[in-house]
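Data card: per-record layout.
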Amino acid sequence: MHKPRTKLKTHKGAAKRFHITGTGKLLRRKGHITHLRRTKPAKVKRAYSDKLPVHPADKERITRLLPYGVKKGGTSFPK
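The structure for this 79-residue chain is written out next.
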């Protein structure tokens, strides 16, 4: 008899921190958003709201944490 494989678990901390686009790119938010925010200029505070692509060196590690969120064969990040 065939034994069913166990389901892969999504890492909930990673799921809250990373966003996956329709083309399969991984996006992240910038760090240090709340630290000393009052003294930072408005231009810098606006830049914190942008999402940045995850570095290619970290992509494989993060995709392992999000087994059902990443499309296979997604486009690579622009250089």
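Known properties of this structure: The helical segments are 12-17, 42-47, 56-65. The two ends are 49 Å apart (CA to CA).

See the next section for split statistics.
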